Design the sequence.
């Protein structure tokens, strides 16, 4: 049976398996005539272990590339699990989303990570959110989102799930310029066209409406330790993170808004991420108002 997508072997898989092969071959050449039999055995064992780990990661990334449904469901499962624990980013996201009201659109809500910011809302506060549109292309998140809504006791939140990409969503001409708040957190790294998502957000917002964002970004300092960690992590993150890439989102956002928006607040900051996620430390957050 033909499997055309099986030929789409990601470069990172080839690199990881190639590195494993070189490691084992190099170990053999270096220690072939070695006098130190024990040292030889120990280094051989360590080389085999590293080679197995690297190759397994390579094969895992290959499987995720060939079977996008596994990738989508796996990503939704991972994010859903992460969502159960508090994160160092909560204070940033909740400071931005502290008191949103009216007609709201969230792009890429995932498992409803931002719902925690409404946990302390009173019943009146929740009722002041007239409509909450969740634009989320990964349908595996819908259930997680509804569960999170229930877990946090937000049954009154008028949630409407739209299973489309932010680039493709069309709220309908009769709703153009009628939304009070549009926001996205950790989303623009994954979209194919930042400009198209911002254009759709812009179309939805009414004059005086707020666009709120918090995104992880490409580090500015080239050849810094962080820059190299992003270079190494990028191909793996793109596959595991379902398309997420390092982008200069701060610059994208500023150039898109131009003078049509007032920048109320725009801050670049380093988030205190757990060590394994060091490469997503640089962030940007802000609130802009449509003129
Ligand atoms: C890393 S998760 C972030 C989830 C949540 N917003 C948060 O702050 O944790 C990225 C989310 O963006 C969604 N996404 C990816 N591409 C998108 C697109 N083109 N339009 C809208 N959402 C998208 C993903 O499905 C996922 O739910």
Sequence:
């Amino acid at each position: 049976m033909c499997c055309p997508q099986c030929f789409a072997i990601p470069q990172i898989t080839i690199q990881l398996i190639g590195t494993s092969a070189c490691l084992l071959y190099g170990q053999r050449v270096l220690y072939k005539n070695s006098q130190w039999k024990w040292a030889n055995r120990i280094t051989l064992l360590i080389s085999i272990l590293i080679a197995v780990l690297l190759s397994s990661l390579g094969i895992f990334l290959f499987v995720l590339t060939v079977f996008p449904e596994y990738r989508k469901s796996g990503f939704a499962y991972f994010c859903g699990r992460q969502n159960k624990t508090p994160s160092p980013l909560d204070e940033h996201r909740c400071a931005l989303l502290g008191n949103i009201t009216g007609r709201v659109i969230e792009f890429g809500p995932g498992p409803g990570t931002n719902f925690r910011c409404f946990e302390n809302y009173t019943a009146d506060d929740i009722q002041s959110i007239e409509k909450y549109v969740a634009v989320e292309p990964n349908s595996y998140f819908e259930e997680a989102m509804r569960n999170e809504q229930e877990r946090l006791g937000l049954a009154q939140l008028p949630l409407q799930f739209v299973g489309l990409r932010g680039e493709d969503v069309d709220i309908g001409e009769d709703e153009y310029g009628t939304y009070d708040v549009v926001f996205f957190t950790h989303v623009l790294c994954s979209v194919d066209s930042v400009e198209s998502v911002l254009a759709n957000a812009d179309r939805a917002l009414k004059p005086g409406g707020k666009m709120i964002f918090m995104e992880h970004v490409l580090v500015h300092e080239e050849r810094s330790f962080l820059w190299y960690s992003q270079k190494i992590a990028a191909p793996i993150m793109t596959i595991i993170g379902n398309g997420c890439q390092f982008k200069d989102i701060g610059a994208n956002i500023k150039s898109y808004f131009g003078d049509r928006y007032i920048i109320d607040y725009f801050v670049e900051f380093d988030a205190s991420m757990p060590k394994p996620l060091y490469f997503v430390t640089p962030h940007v957050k802000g609130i802009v108002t449509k003129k």
In short: The chain is about 45% helix and 20% strand. The chain has a mean pLDDT of 92. The CA atoms of residues 40 and 86 lie 46 Å apart.
